[in-house]
Amino acid sequence: MIKKRYKIGFLAILVIGIIFLFFLIGSPEKSNFKDAKQKNTIEAYENYLSNYENGKYVNEAMQKIEDIKFSQFRDSAFSSFINILKTNTDSTKTEIHIKPSNKVLMGTPINIELHHLPPNRKVTLHAYRRRWNGIIYSFASYQSDDNGQIILNKAEPIHGTYSFADSLGIFWSMTWPSQKGLDLPFEIEELKENTLFLYIEIDDKIIAFKELELIDKLPHIITEKIDTDTLIAEFHYPKDKMNIPILILIGGGSQGEYDWSNQFAKIVASHGYASLVLTYNNVGPLPKFLEKVPLEYFFNAINWVKRKPIIDSEKIIIAGGSRAGELVLLLASMNSDIKGVIALGPSCVIWQGLPHDPLTAFFSKPAWTLNGKGLPYVKHRLHLPTIGKFISGARQIDLMKMHEGRLDDWSKIEPALIKVEKINGPILFIAGKDDQMWPSYQMCQMMQHRLDSLHFKHPVKGLYYDNAGHRVTSPDLLPTIDYKYEDVIFGGTDSGNANAQIDSWNKMIEFLKAYFPIEKPDYQAN
Question: Of the residues 20, 132, 317, 409, which has the maximum number of CB atoms within 10 A of its CB?
Answer without folding.
Answer: 317
